[in-house]
Structure prediction request, 807 residues.
Amino acid sequence: MVEYGFQVKLNHKFPESWDANIRPRLHQVWGFLVLGLRYLVWYVGMWFHGKKPFIDQLHPVTGKQIYGVPLGGIGSGTMGRGFRGEFTRFQMRPGLYDYGTADADQFIVSVAGRAGGRARYQQVLSACDAPADRLSAWRWAFPGDLASYRGLYPRSWTVFTLPGEDLQLTVRQVSPVIPHNYKDTSLPCSVFVWDIENTGDEQKDVSVTFTFENGTGCKNSSAECSVAPFGSEQHSAGGVCGMAIDQEIAGVPCRYALAARLKDDVAVSRGSFDPTGNGLDLWNELAQTGSLTLQTDKAHGPDVGVAVSARVTVPAGERRSLEMSLVWHMPEVHFLGGERRVSRYYTKWFETGRQGADQLSRYALDCFSSWESDIEAWQRPVLTDPDLPDWYKSAIFNELYYISDGGSLWIRMPGEDQLPETDPRREYGRFGYLESHEYIMYNTYDVHFYSSAALVQLWPQLQLSLQYDMAEFVAQEDPETRTMLYSGQTAPRKRANTVPHDVGNPGMPGEMPFCNINSYQIHDVSAWKDLNLKFVLQVYRDLRVTGDRRYLRHMWPTCCAVMNVARAWDTDGDGMIENSGMPDQTYDTWVMEGVSAYCGGLWIAALYTMREMAREQALAEQVDLYDAMLTKAQKVYIDKLWTGSYYRFDSSASGHAQCIMADQLCGHWYLRSSDVTEPVFSHVETALRTVYEHNVLLFRDGRQGAVNGMMPDGQVNEHTMQSEETWTGVTYALAAAMLHEGMVEEGFRTAEGIYRTVYERIGQGFETPEALYPEKHYRAVGYMRPLSIWAMQHAWEQRRRAAGDAV
Prediction:
């Protein structure tokens, strides 16, 4: 078992309990009043027509302080696991979450003194209390102080010390999330490996039984389910014995499959049970024999349960192991209210019928040891690096949970086999993930700009696929007019030569992500100043990472098109774009006016990348054009924003224009993430030190990351709600910028405040929020942007390479 990760006892209580019930300050209310009224009218209309809002502000999700490492690969649905043993937070329908806990989804241990003897100890291996109205015959609430949990995504370990039995059980949870492995990483499965150590002087007969029920802990399964065995209890060693549940989840066919590996010393049995009853029959059968009898009288109905039990004799002083798998096979994606169906990416290798689940079960049990070897090889350089802090070794991998549990969707669209061979979507399909568990929009691009650091380093072909989608969408127009909730003005859903905000809402009946884009309706995103620039910057970054010049040739016309639109944002012709005085960028309640540090910095960085991409293609005229524009923009940026110690928020005459913005050097950070060493921006270290001294050290004693806005006098900028928030992903990006500039201690301390707050103080691990308030509240649990922590890893590795080259 590895040394690092998120570590708690099963009876752990977090010291603080925060919630998502945020309220604006009195002086902030006026800015939201009209928006709130329009939103309420729109919300009622959505509810009346059975549509799910892309943001449900009336029912924010409050975390439960229970979560651990989730189950499953990328893009095929996930199941959450609580560190106490719950199966909870099911994301089986693309981008839509069920927060119920499936009570019958458990592991039960039975211990007898001899083979075939009656159990003298039997216990549900979970610290959870008994359900209120079922399974009362089971022994619940394992003593939490006798069990410990360690999570290091995509694996976890739970160690149980059985009281009075001289037995220690360790269950290792393994999901196939492996960098640069696209086949196995797409699979809807996990494996549980049980190591049983007998520390006493008496031989023990031990069985572990895996129980499971239909549905997702909520009433969304079909009225009629059925169970079926697969494999055989009589197979030779190496075979698989399992039970399956066939059902529909929200009208979509799904097969759950539980299986155990047959070995020479392991006997496997299976059965079914009623998960709504008291569970006495199953409990007594295990207690009497340590095994199950296959029955058919409980094989159909609205509520069914299956169980697979593996039994092994463990001699005194020795250790034995059991291997079990869980598969959820939903090969087709059905979007709400439509007839269009698409296949999940993993169906390239596994059958779409029920037998596909059986194949996946065998494959998972055959391959999990190689998965673990690959995971260990990937994580080892970080975990064994003596110069990296221990908390970071947990954070860098555990924040990656979102790549699978962020509503991720990996599909094969019709006609992909007709795409050019150079198009990554032909081979790797289409990838999407949500902005947040509760902001249900796929590939929200202003946010993906930050989180793409993880994707491009670990699964670069998915990043390229996403970019090819965006390039295609840029040229599209959608004339459907909608009323913007903030301004009340009408605007077309999508204008040509603008980068979309998102690629669709999976909860919108009659619409389909990747076909109906820009589900966000608060502002007219075609006028946003950051989206076009962020596309250009990602193209350049991806080029530096992959070295794919074909990618550059494909993206260059789109880069030129979006930059031509962006040039019109320079309203006074001085070479620098201006913000409109309306919310027109990712900080969508924090208004920028005139030249802003944030968008102005993105503009400078985009001009630099355009010049360099033109240079790589020997386009001399374009090189000269963008070089001249860059020189002018750099001068204006300094003249209008530099204060002598930082870049002011914007050039307006407003009271908060002098604000020190944590994200003021976002453009510089992105260039450094693209391995640019040329000094495109001036006064970088001075500005970063000002941010560190004010936004980090003067905020919550330096223990909660970087507040978005701080005034020069050391007061938090309370001009708007977002200015007084700490954005977890922005803090990680800021820390990465510090590492690039040699501010190593400052960078790690800045990021540490986020990890300590989220994982240790308030119990929001594996559902990291977008925003933390100074105290008691957070916003948007389970958010995309914290994946930017992988930019820190890139910065660290870049420093190591530079040090090696110097030697």
